[in-house]
Amino acid sequence: MSTLLHVEDLRVSFPTRTGVVEAVRGVSFALGQERLGIVGESGSGKSQTGRAIMGLTPQQAEIKAKRLEFSGIDLLKASQAERRALRGSRIAMILQDPKYSLDPVMTIGRQIVETLRTHEKVGKSEARQRALDMLAAVQIRDPKRVYDLYPHEVSGGMGQRAMIAMMLIAGPELLIADEPTSALDVTVQLDILRILDRLVIDRGMGLVFISHDLRLVSTFCDRVIVMYAGKIVEELKASELSQAKHPYTQGLLNCMPKIGESRHPLPVLDRQPEWLL
Amino acid sequence: MTPALAIDKLRVVYDDFIALKDVSLTVAQGESFGLVGESGSGKSTLLRAVAGLAPVTSGTIDVSGQRLGKTRDKAFYRQVQMVFQDPYGSLHPRQTVDRLLLEPLDIHGFADTEKRIQRALDEVGLGSGFRFRYSHQLSGGQRQRVAIARALILEPSILLLDEPTSALDASVQAEVLNLLEQVRRDRKLTFVMVSHDLGVITHMCERLMVMQSGEEVERLQAGDLATRNVAQDYTRNLLVASEGFVRGG
Lengths: 277, 249
Hints:
The structure holds two protein chains of two kinds.
Chain A: E1 5-16, E2 19-31, E3 35-39, H1 46-54, E4 62-64, E5 67-70, E6 73-74, H2 80-86, E7 91-94, H3 98-101, H4 108-119, H5 124-137, H6 143-147, H7 156-168, E8 174-178, H8 186-203, E9 206-211, H9 214-220, E10 223-228, E11 231-237, H10 247-254
Parallel strand pairs in A: 3-9, 3-10, 7-8, 8-9
Antiparallel strand pairs in A: 1-2, 1-4, 1-5, 5-6, 10-11
Helix pairs in contact in A: 4-5, 4-7, 5-7, 7-8
Chain B: E1 5-14, E2 17-27, E3 32-36, H1 43-51, E4 58-63, E5 66-67, H2 74-79, E6 80-83, H3 97-107, H4 113-123, H5 140-152, E7 158-162, H6 170-187, E8 190-195, H7 198-204, E9 207-212, E10 215-221, H8 222-226, H9 233-241
Parallel strand pairs in B: 3-8, 3-9, 6-7, 7-8
Antiparallel strand pairs in B: 1-2, 1-4, 4-5, 9-10
Helix pairs in contact in B: 5-6
């Protein structure tokens, strides 16, 4: 398995009025053609890690890393134009809520075609056909109808499928999914994951799956990284989640109410100051 | 004993969309009742109809034996309070916590506001240090505690909870659920709680109703979900989905 992405000692910091806030503090991992989960609470730096790879970190923030490399390209040295060429074609990102991440005044079909034609030289009718095929690939039953709909005319699950279609149409090698199913109902959530799973396997993509839901990630990914306060506290195989060693991971697993268990009160996380070090 | 809440054939219609189709339900005093379903199932609409935030087209609602009319009076809100899902959207952004908690007391003409505000903050585990902060200075969990304090400050007997923890991290969710259980025990409150999370509902409620497209699917005891004693396929699907992703198939 070739390594697609190298991240070594990644640091993202934001200057604020009250001093520098370090959102990511020395994250390192390597990714091949596999599904890697990044889990943590809000503010743990998981999304900023994804955004730094994608090149979407806000301008005022400072990114430092010993190595941030995508298939041989040094992302830190790459120019804006080079990053732009990568974004969407070789690295793609799925965001949480299709309500906000799709363009509200453009039909779904046009948005998908726009992505495709930005990165590849294709004719209009071919682009339309490929967009329709892609919509069918994400299991939209009536692609021709959905092609001409605006984002507000479709449900959340349908919008997220359209988003996935748009992200995958240029055939990226690396897909970053930032809470792709958190805004959806549980049953729809599983449909979307099934589609994502198949596409990732069929196309041999690398996937970074960012989520706050430890249980969901562990059933979907091969490997899981657990983040706390900008650092990786533990890395484990998804299948071995129950043997997690770090008290934070254990606490996260423990504090969720489960069907068929009676624990009153629920155990809460006892945050230790040394986890921050 | 008169039930805390009795709903009979409640129907809510928006233009030509029927959000709630003749749902009936009785909640005893001191009971904790859960409503489960996916978006669009009508579970939140039911709570909002009780609170007077959704138009009742037909059917009746009785609170502690009192039939509710078209509008809700002040006495109703002394008795019934609601906690909303999104703590970022349900607190006034330009009011301090103190001001937020003072408003309901003012409206209902309480005299000893000072003491009540302090006690309410203590009860939700915030302490007086938070009293003069704005909501943007608080974390999600702290905001939801303020929302609970605001609901409890009028000493209601029924609390309507609309996904009170689904915007929170798992660890913070546990803290807020524990807090809700404790205030329920201390004050002998009646809960009607809406959630899409079966784990949360079985943890908090003795009885629950599964809903889909504005209708009741089935009614269960919390224990039925653990033993898979469910009659409807819809509920079974929800149960399977709650276990996470299964590869293959």
